Amino acid sequence: MKLLPRFLPSFFITVLMSFLAPVVVCGLILTLCSALWVLPGMTSVLMKGALTEFLEVFGSGNAWQGVLVIATACSLVGGMFEAFNLCYYQDTN
């Protein structure tokens, strides 16, 4: 039980950052595609459409739900990785 107070802050920060990373990356890519779309000769609308269709697969037809599903999966994996590291390296601390 002595490791629990040291584990929880690190665990929550890892889960939060693992959740925010895909949200920020997808948001930046979609924003960049939308910004480049106004320039003549840019075909970023095709890339935006492909990314939106990819995200709609995971979100049951809604791209932002797809982003949330992917972000939730990443946060679960990040949390499991943090728990594994704690169990594996608890003898060194």
Verbal overview:
It is a single chain. With 93 residues, the chain is mostly helical. It has a domain at 61-87. It contains three helices and no strands. The radius of gyration is 18 Å and the shape is elongated. The mean pLDDT is 86.
Summarize the structure.
The protein has 93 residues and is mostly helical.
Walk me through the topology.
Blueprint lengths: L3 H34 L6 H15 L4 H26 L5
Which key terms come to mind for this protein?
93 residues, mainly alpha, elongated
What would you call the quaternary organization?
single chain
Mean pLDDT across the residues is: 86
How far apart are the termini? 14 Å
How many strand units? 0
Order of helices and strands: HHH
Can you give the helix content as a percent range?
Answer: over 70%
Protein structure class: mainly alpha
The outline comes out as elongated
The rounded Rg comes to 18 Å
Number of helices: 3
Question: Biggest sheet, in brief?
Answer: none
**Unreliable stretches:** none
Percent of residues in β-strands: under 5%
